[in-house]
Amino acid sequence: MSNTSNASKNVRRFLLLFALGIAYGFMYVMPYMKSSFYDQMIAAMGCTNAQLGSLMTAYCICCTVSYLPGGWIGDKFNPKPVLLISIFGQAALSFLFMFTYKSYTMAVIIWLLMGLTGGFAFWPAIMKGIRLTGTDEEQGRIYGIFEALNGFASLLLSFIMIGVMAVVGGSDLITGFKSALAFMGGLSLVSGVLVAILMPKDAAYGVSEEEKQKKITFKDYMSAFKIPGVWIMAVLVWCYVTISAVASYLTPYSAGVLGMSAALAASVGTFRTYGCRLIGGPLGGYLADKTFKSVAKEQLLGQLACLVTIGIFLVLPGGTSGGLLVVLLLLVGIAMFLCKGTYFSIQPEMGIPTTVSATAVAIATFVGYIPDMFVHTMFGNWIDAYGDAGYTKILFYGVGTAALGAIAALCAISQSKKVAKRKAAEQAA
């Protein structure tokens, strides 16, 4: 009976993670939909390229400034209602845009509001919700599985949307665009219902009753800023975000400098972005929980893997075999997701209590995603100014960032030992 009960709980947790993955995919596919449906948006909205770019600027600014207060919300309130409000709010914004897409002013307002639903409330809450679905010993696998399911859901969502637009819209870009918006809104509603059904109100594996009952105060919120592990986690996120930006330039570098066909480079780049999540996330979680018994040690492996794989590109000659480039590009992707899949699962090891988990995630996200505001522009300027030599600068920047990540991981290992000693002393007392 006990085994049956545990199996049932595990199935329920897996389904919950899948529902959260769908919700996560939708939450960020919608504001970033120009990446896949650029021409359709231009045709439907009648806006300029600059105006379309400004929508993302508005969204990113709103997300960035709302992460920190959103962390407090995520810790102050149970994550379930916060998630549901965010998911259903995003669905409403999708339907609203479907009826008002011709108004650029409304589009700006909607993208700003999506910054609130996705950055202010949803992001810290979902990260905390994921943490609460497993014990401290399962964090690597829990986050790794979620990363894989998120990648699968995002990939599936993109392909289904393309299919919907092709079948419903045909050559009519506007009709296809509106049908995609309706589909996304409907899918968001479904994911919200699944989260409402599958996510227990008070489920928190490995969390003491004292922690469950504790009400977070402003003092607790501010205490998160004083935890060294929070800032170590922030540096790890910073390094991943930067390395991810570097990896995005490996596609044009492989095609334009190393001689890989543009079509093959684009295909491999797409799979690296989505498909490698299915490998790197679970693998990182397994290594963290089962092999190393430490997320910090797994992060060290991931950062060193990024350093080596990116570094190899520095010595590759023009005309390198396409097969070898495919392997190397995929290895970079797997190395990246070894890092991304588990960096938030390091919280217990860093001594970050569940009471301020959302705040810790918000701080790490706020700091860690700062590179997104400048590295792409900086890298583009390097290529414009130095030509092919600009790519060399980008690669060296990536190697240096991975080295910084390895140092941060070593600091994490040291901090984890201190936390373990403190816990042992508290238990002995």
Class computed from helices, strands and strand pairing: mainly alpha
Oligomer: single chain
DSSP summary: helix tally: 17
Q: Ends: how far apart?
A: 36 Å
The strand count comes to 0
The CATH topology of the largest domain corresponds to Growth Hormone, Chain: A
Query: Order of helices and strands, N to C?
Result: HHHHHHHHHHHHHHHHH
Q: What is the beta-strand fraction?
A: under 5%
Ranges where pLDDT stays below 50 over 5 or more residues in a row are: none
CATH class identity of the largest domain = Mainly Alpha
Mind telling me the C-alpha Rg?
A: 22 Å
Just name the CATH architecture of the largest domain.
Answer: Up-down Bundle
Morphology call? globular
Notes on the protein architecture:
- By secondary structure, this protein is mainly α.
- It folds into two domains: 2-200, MFS general substrate transporter like domains (Growth Hormone, Chain: A, Up-down Bundle); 221-424, MFS general substrate transporter like domains (Growth Hormone, Chain: A).
- The protein is 81% helix and 0% strand.
- The chain contains 17 helices and no strands.
- The protein has helices at residues 2-29, 34-45, 49-76, 79-100, 104-131, 139-169, 173-198, 209-213, 218-223, 228-248, 250-256, 262-291, 295-313, 322-340, 357-368, 375-386, 388-428.
- Helix 10 (228-248) runs parallel beside helix 13 (295-313).
- The radius of gyration is 22 Å and the shape is globular.
- The mean pLDDT is 83.
